[in-house]
Predict the structure.
Amino acid sequence: MNARKKIEVSGLRLSFGDKEVLHGISFDVYAGEILGVIGPAQSGKTSLLRCINRTIEFTPGARVGGRIAVDGQDVQHVKDVHGLRRKIGMVAPLPVGLPLSIYDNVAFAPRAAGARDRAWLDGHVEQCLRQAALWDEVKERLDVLGTKLSGGQQQRLTIARALSHQPEILCLDEFSIAIDPVTTMRIEDVLKELSRDMTIVLVTNLVQQARRLAARTLFLWNGHIVELDRTEVVFSDSPGDRRTYEYVNGIFG
Amino acid sequence: MFTETLTGRKKQRHERVARMFFGLMTAAMVIPLLLIVGFVVFKGAPAMTWEFFSTNPRRGGTAGGIWPALVGTLYLILVSLCISAPIGVLAAVYLNEYAKENWFTRIVNLAVVNLAGVPSIVHGLFGLGAFVYALHFGKSILAAALTLAIMTLPVIIASTKEALASVPRSFREACWNVGASRWQTIWRIVLPNSISGILTGVILQVSRTAGETAPVMLTGVATFKAIEGGGLFLYDLREQCMALSMHLFYVRTQASGAPEELSYAIAATLLGVVLLVNTTAICFRVFLRARKKW
C-alpha cells in the first residue's frame, strides 16, 4: 500500500458548549485507501467528518482542538477554506438534491469555483454522472429538477455532485441509510472503482459494508478510538479490543 | 364486522361538533369582512364618478374629487417601499444567514419583534422629531415616507427572516460541502427559493402603509393640497401631500356639509388601493410558487 499520509488527525477534540464529543483522537488516512469508520450512533462519526472539511464552523458553539492536516497542511490555517472543501467530496446520510436541474446540481460546484466554459461543463457533468452510475437513467432529462428523482437516484446525484469539484478525498457519511440494497451494491461497486485514484473515508452504520470495502477499519465509540486496524483483523475472532468483537458481532449493548 | 360501537359514535359526534365549530369561526371572520366591503361600496357608489377620481377637492372638501389624495397615497406607498424593502430584506438576510448566535444578535432580534408592536402614533411622533425637525426635511412626503418606512421595517425583517428560514438547512450544507461561499449559497439557492415569501411579506406591508393616518398626519400630509397641471411628477418629495386616509378623516369630521356618500366613496377607494396591492402580491406568489423547486 502507498503509505503517504493524506489526512493526519492528531489529538482532535471537539466540544459543543461544555459537552465534549471527541476526546482527543489521533489517526492517519493513507492516500488511496478506503478507511471504514464504524461505531454506534452518537459516537462522533459525522462530527469527525465535519471537522475535516471545517463545515463544523457552521454549528454555533462548536469548538475544535488538536490538529487535522490534509496533505500536510493544517486545515485550521489554510488560506482558502473553499479550496479545502473542494478537495474533499462529502456525501451526507440523506440525499440532498438541490432545487436545481440535474445538470445544474452537478455543475453547481464547478460554477461556484469559476468554471464558465459550457462545452467543458457538459463533458464534466456527463463524466460525474457516469462515475456515480446515474448517467444512463437521466441522460435524456438533464433539465428535470434534481428533487424530482427517487431517493436512490438523488443519493447518486449527491455523489455526482461530490465528485464534481474533482476531490482527492471522498467522505461518505452513512450514504446507504436511505436507499435500497440493490442501489447500495451499485454504489459500492462505484466506490471500489473510485478508490483507484481517490482516498475514501467511509462512515457507515452497516459493519458489513466496512468489511466489504475498507482496507482498514476504525471503531469509534463515545468519542474515543477503540480500535484501528486492518479490516480482516477488526472482523476476526480476536481483534485488539473485546468491545470491537462485541460491536461487530452485534452483542454490544 | 364494522358494526357501530359506542366509542365509534362518540368519535363521529366529536368530529361533527369540531367541524361545525371551526366552520362557524370561519364564518365569523368572513361575514363581517363581506359586510364591510359591501356596505362601503354600496354607500359610496353614487359618488364614484370619473370626476370624483380625477379632480381636486372643492369648497373645503365638501365637493369635487380626490385626485390629489389618491396620488399622495400612492406616492407615500412607493417612496416608503423603496426605502424599507431593500433595507429590511438585506438586514433580514444578514440576521438569518450571517449573524452568529450571541447576546448582541439576540438583542437585535428582540428589538425587531418589539419594534413591530410600537403604536403608529409613536412612530409619527418619532418621525416628527427626527425627520421634520432634527434633519430639517420639514413636513414633506420624504419625512412621511421615511416615518412609514421605519414603521414597516421590523415587520418586513420578521417576515423575510421567516421566508429565509423556510429553506431547508440541508440545502445550505450541501452547498457549503462543495466549497460554495455563504454568498454563493444565498444567491444561488436560498434567495431563489424564498423570494415568493419575501415579496409577499413586503407587499402585504404596503396595505398597512396605505391605511396609516396618524404617523403621516404628523409628518407630511396636509388637509388640502391641490395638484395643478399634470406632469409625471405631480408632487415634489419636499412638498406636503394629501392622503386618502387623512382626507377621509377630514371630510367626515371637519368639513361640515359634506354629502355622506363622499366619505364612503373615499373609503371604497382606499379599500380598492389596498385590494389592488394585495392582488398583485397574490399574483406574484402564484407565479413564483409555480417555479418553486421542491
